[in-house]
Amino acid sequence: MGDKPVPDTDVELLVRSGIKLLGQGGLGVIKQALDTSQDPAQVVGQFMAQLIMKMGEEIVGQLQLDPRAFLAKGGFLEEMLDYLEQKLMLPPEFSEQVYAEVVEIVKAVVMQGDEQMAGAAPEQQVPQQPGLQGMGGM
Predict the structure, then answer these.
(1) Under DSSP, is residue 25 helix (H, G, I), strand (E, B) or coil?
(2) Taking the model in full, what pTM does it have?
């Protein structure tokens, strides 16, 4: 297709920002989900989707980063899941479940946005997980 590859510097900036946010309370939310949730992959997936949306709103435009860096092969989501695997000693299968959850949430949000632009009423919103709102700005 001729698409340019996502710049490594964009991925690196996003990953560093994401790790910083995790250090501001997000890691605790993820640990709690792993300990208490009946479906931790879904909860972590929702959290990561919110993180992507928050970062997309706050820094992608400001720094003129390529938004494809979030879901690209070797991009933000893969790097963050690798980080969580190492930090929390999680199996790769868990990361695969979280990745699939995030992709489904992002697709739903994009489709919802397209419907709203076309004049349709919104059907659902991404559920908010505690902790992300209180992690501060970037």
Answers:
(1) helix
(2) 0.78
